[in-house]
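Task: complex structure prediction.
Instruction: return structure tokens for all chains below.
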Amino acid sequence: MSESPGIGRPEQAISRIEAFSDGVMAIAITLLILQLAVPGPNVTDRGLGHALLDQEHHFFAYLLTFAVIGRFWMAHHSLFRYVRRHDATFLVLNLVFLLTIAFLPYPSDLLGEHSDDRLAVILYAVSVAAASLSSAALWIYATRRHRLVDPSLPEREIRHIRRRALSGGVVFLLSIPLAFVRVWLAFATWVALLPLVRMTLAARHRREARKV
Amino acid sequence: MSESPGIGRPEQAISRIEAFSDGVMAIAITLLILQLAVPGPNVTDRGLGHALLDQEHHFFAYLLTFAVIGRFWMAHHSLFRYVRRHDATFLVLNLVFLLTIAFLPYPSDLLGEHSDDRLAVILYAVSVAAASLSSAALWIYATRRHRLVDPSLPEREIRHIRRRALSGGVVFLLSIPLAFVRVWLAFATWVALLPLVRMTLAARHRREARKV
Amino acid sequence: MSESPGIGRPEQAISRIEAFSDGVMAIAITLLILQLAVPGPNVTDRGLGHALLDQEHHFFAYLLTFAVIGRFWMAHHSLFRYVRRHDATFLVLNLVFLLTIAFLPYPSDLLGEHSDDRLAVILYAVSVAAASLSSAALWIYATRRHRLVDPSLPEREIRHIRRRALSGGVVFLLSIPLAFVRVWLAFATWVALLPLVRMTLAARHRREARKV
Amino acid sequence: MSESPGIGRPEQAISRIEAFSDGVMAIAITLLILQLAVPGPNVTDRGLGHALLDQEHHFFAYLLTFAVIGRFWMAHHSLFRYVRRHDATFLVLNLVFLLTIAFLPYPSDLLGEHSDDRLAVILYAVSVAAASLSSAALWIYATRRHRLVDPSLPEREIRHIRRRALSGGVVFLLSIPLAFVRVWLAFATWVALLPLVRMTLAARHRREARKV
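Output:
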């Protein structure tokens, strides 16, 4: 995409990428509800309450994936605050990231339907790890030699956002071998280990910021 | 989310949160139509008219939930007019609010399918109350000591918006015990009591505004 | 919605209403595709070609409703170009208009499934007429004594947009009695009469503009 | 659409068309995931792994169509960078383009379900070609005598974007007769020939730019 500099509306370009990305993330997070199917009219023999309880795994997968996509939106939001320019590679990397987000309703539905099946758990972990790693790739590409970001952005901020993005990928990849031991160990890694890692990174970032 | 002040584009940040929130609310309100299933080709024995009349509860639930989400959009719109800054807690509270909105198509479909079942009515009331209370939490967090809002915003305006958000939660929670008496009493509370409470609050607000 | 003038960001308010409306209309127009169901794997006895031809009424309804929503988007777009302020009534009227648009995928699906049934044709005509008339109501409310629009907007422009919005409602209502004679007469009214009426209105508008 | 020049907010008009177009493209690209159906609970006899492998054609069609719509978004994005004005014809042409994008989930689903059926392959090729040609028509209309674009936009940039849009249409139309020989030849044309043609065009464009 050879662009003639000086022509066009560069200042609007970034906000249009944001708008399209927000659109995809907003739709993916809202479409998740379609995985919760309302029980049909013939539930009276056992009662509606039991029929809803049968869906508990779907409710768990729904809430988990809503939190995951919401977290990615926050990360994308804080990442784009520093982006000033774009190029064709950046657009493609952003589309790859959006693909990993738009895909999430599928492994989420799969996890709700087959939460006792190791394969469903592994596919979910791989999908979230792919989203994490592609958002890390987007950030690494944009910040290398301050290619597309604000030149005054301090190196420690760049490192912090990079570590945060990579840590999500590492934790979800790590949970895959654990799923072979016990399926619930993978769930535990996602729900307990990830917040712990993130808090450690945030503490480290604050420590580094104080030093300056 | 430790933010380096002075870098980034703070003035664009609020409008991006609005855009994402509008996206989620616009999708949730439009997805509602999926709960209305078109009768299949084999309805000729009783006629299409009867088949459509059989869906009357779904039509009622559709219209009610459309009005509910539309009202929340208006509230979010009037709330964000005063927001000037944001922080990580505000983003998380906003995501919790969006979760309660994105979830509404499910209890709406449930209400249309099982409108005679007390559990469907209660789940609907709980869901709308959750949306009301989380929008109140968002407002209370943002306005405490004018944390994130325009410093010149008068205290009575803050109180008015807070009361309006809380009143929705209170009315929908109140309807739950009434649903145990008669299911239609819960419907009546939503459709008749809520507008009444809102009109009283608006009258009180106008009275307070005149005093100044 | 009592608003304290001077506080808030009035200039952003209109564009947020536009963004939400665009969201609802974009989703409704894109969701239409869900009414086209892909034939299952067992079509080999008659062939995929025949199975697709069986859906011809759905293709027609899809294209027609896409054109209808697209036209309403263009009308909303040209209407909002002149809007400068808003109030609570305007927001509610706009939500009623969006309800009529978000509802259209249902009568469209119904028309595709039961195109030979008079009731499906009438419901479609009523739905489009409701969208037309509610967009006319929005415009009449906004322009009465230049309430919410640019004060320099000439009266003949106001009249022209009003006539165009009302003409859609009139033509679709007119097609209802015709549907009782022959169903195809209603289709013919939509596809042939409406463009004719619109062209007449445009010619009249140009004539009036030349006089000045 | 007779527009009174000088009234209205022309500078906002283009960005609203972009926002609506982005909305439709974001929804279409995210809705694609609905073509991937999660295997039901009764897959234990053969295992979830086999059930997922049975969907391989759907995964291929999903990824292909995601890439196709993503590419069209990038093209629309680079095209609109130069657009300065609009008129009714431009709006209609843009709606026709959006129709071809919003329609793509259907041939994509069809391709996943009947990837061995020549008709599904041809319908997919026709649909993508229609999107390419309508985006070319949009560009040709906007740039003829610099009708709606920046007057300083060099002729070689106009030619380059036009060739790129037309080349997609030509390649997909070319693949149709090849589908009659062997279905996989059509796939090969899409996946291998198109990138080749695009790279040749980009090289030619760079050569022309250097000459100046």
